[in-house]
Amino acid sequence: MAPMALTIGFDLDMTLIDSRPGIRACYLALSERTGAYIDADLAVTRLGPPLAEELVNWFPAEQVPAMADLYREMYPSIAVAASPAMAGAREAMDAVRAAGGRTMVVTAKYEPNAKLHLAHLGIEPDVVVGDLWAERKAQALREYGASVYVGDHTGDVRGARTAGALSVAVATGPCPADELRAAGADVVLDDLAPFPAWLAGYRDAPRA
Length: 208
Description:
Blueprint: E1 7-10, H1 20-34, H2 40-43, H3 51-55, H4 64-79, H5 89-98, E2 102-106, H6 111-121, E3 127-129, H7 137-143, E4 148-151, H8 154-163, E5 166-170, H9 177-182, E6 187-189, H10 195-204
Parallel strand pairs: 1-2, 1-4, 2-3, 4-5, 5-6
């Protein structure tokens, strides 16, 4: 079967979902459980990179794998229900489907927990791939033939560019618009609200 003509990938945290309340609560619970100090308010200002890159700030390196496992075990009961969809997330996904396209989520988040978030919010991408960050996201984007990747972090921009996909950045996460542009984003939007209109223009452009 020939691949679909339009496949668009999305990041998860701070692109499709506002995971800050849930992640903050989970870090506080981890701190209470382990007795280690974690500045949860600071941690949620730098979402995007893999969990281990944050945990190494609060635990000795040799403890990080075990702490990551504990965090992921605690996560579903603490973080999923507390994390709402970002404004425009459902409409962005619906716009891709209305255009006859396929949607995918490519995230650094632990894949089972990413799927729990999406199921809880009723957001149903065609494909979900977790545990990939920055340039490694290109593996999944290439595999499924994504021509566009939407994310909020400079790591997402790098992933899109490595895959040869158009980088659409939304300034809803830790990276401001100027930083996203400097990283090489092809398009920078304030949030996902204008994405359906942008997509319509993107599809019409080759025929213009």
